[in-house]
Amino acid sequence: EFMQASWDIEEVQAKGIQYLASFVKDKSVFPYLLPCTEVVTLAMRTHVDSLELQTEGCTLLLEIHSQALEQGVMMALDEDVASCLLRTVRKHSENEEFLSSLCTLLMMVSASEVAAENLRKVGIIPDLLSILRRFLHNDKICFSCCAVLWSLAVSENNADQAVLESAVPVIRAVLQEHLQNGVVAESACSALWALSLQGSVTDSECEPTTATLLDALRVNPERAVLVKNGCLALASLVRLSETAALTILLDPKGSGIELIKDEYYLHLDDPGVAEALCLLMNEMVQYDEILLDMRSQKVEKLLCKMKLQFPFS
């Protein structure tokens, strides 16, 4: 009530946020902190120029959202708050440390479909892409932004096709930069899968995106989620263009078919990986030339083994 009564006085808002933050470690206080997100975001919206207040507000919201996720509470984000966060992103677009925290917060809230839709409505995607281009070296920012882009791109009522198309080369650059970092690579593969499902990969991006996804599978063969989502992304690309299928077959770094076989045997007990591999091969055999090549590499034997391994799937 004190903060709401003095909403225009920056010092009051800063002291209020600091005081609220002193309670976050006490789990029993969580039900009382939950309604405070509204007053914190109001303070951030009103005093967008104050980096200190933005930082402390963002940190507090992160703590509250983290506890909410731990307790299975999904916190929605209305369009006003989404606009507020977008203004904050634009006002402090050069501050790497602050953006690292803010992008983590965006990742958390975008897990809600309502929040993801509101972030998309206010037009946050171009700003996320600008952040990625500027801070491509920052693994934390790249991980969070790719996760947010996945949540936004996976929405069925997406009308921002040109914007989504512009996201593909940026996410591909993230994947290339962080191939050795399994967590970031996994997030980037998921984002590329969502973008390919939306048909956002242009003809010129099809071959390099396919090659980069194959690189991710080679470098991180043990990460089941990455392999699964990487193969689903490849399946979507093959569905879009024969170029992707030919790239898988003729990749100069090694046969994509052999890679598929290796991944199956590495994740022999994982039905999710097997299903993703089957979907990929099913898309590839739609092209006669590819089908002949797959037969010559004895893919039928692999499929028979899969059928025996997962007879009820």
TrEMBL record:
Gene Ontology MF annotations: ATP binding; protein serine/threonine kinase activity
EC top class named in words: transferase
Annotated EC: 2.7.11.1
Catalysed reaction, written as an equation: L-threonyl-[protein] + ATP = O-phospho-L-threonyl-[protein] + ADP + H(+); L-seryl-[protein] + ATP = O-phospho-L-seryl-[protein] + ADP + H(+)
Pfam families according to UniProt: TPR_CCP1_N (PF25571)
Entry-linked InterPro entries: ARM-like, ARM-type_fold
Designated name of the protein: Serine/threonine kinase-like domain-containing protein STKLD1
Lineage, highest ranks first: Eukaryota, Metazoa, Chordata, Craniata, Vertebrata
Underlying gene: Stkld1_1
